[in-house]
Fold:
Amino acid sequence: MFVLLVFIAAAPTASAQDVLATTEIEPAAAEPSPPPDRGPGAHLRFGLGADLAALGATDFFGLGVGVQARLGVQLSPWFAVYYQPHAIGGLVLTGDSSAGALGALFNSANVELDLPILQVGAGPSVDVLALAGCSLGTATCNVDNGTYFGVDVRAALLIGPHGPGTHSGFAIEANLHPTFLDTDVLTTFTLGFAGEIY
Structure:
């Protein structure tokens, strides 16, 4: 009996520090992070730009400058609809030694496909034209104006993010715009730059 008690007393006992050192403590499970806020699915679409214009028809050719805006709705990262007013002013020359000043306001309603770096849109347009021309040979001048049907096609290389939510970017853009006159077609090509909120 005495020998058994001596053996038990002599046996090493684990201290509290030894128990803690050899016990693995499982880390608490991390709380799942909330999904990032991607913003509304449909939101405001706005753009504003300036461009150079080349204008041509059967009887004349001209050069001009223009400004344009876009105001509409970005339906998703891939599609947008907007109203695009495009004002252009320029000088034109005709084959019968006449020169003139041309003013145009294109009112387009475009549907647009938005890819990560490319925007392509098209739609019908109501075009208001005014032409003041003078004949160099007879020194006579006249003014003519009217409202016509047109078609707008826009393509832009976009420097900016793509995806859900509202973004801003910079675009290098081109517009091809035929206007159907009474007996002719006025074709306008513009190339310029724009800032976009999409």
Observations:
- Confidence is low (pLDDT under 50) at residues 1-11.
- The chain has two helices and eight strands.
- Strands lie at 43-56, 60-74, 79-94, 98-114, 118-135, 141-159, 168-180, 185-197.
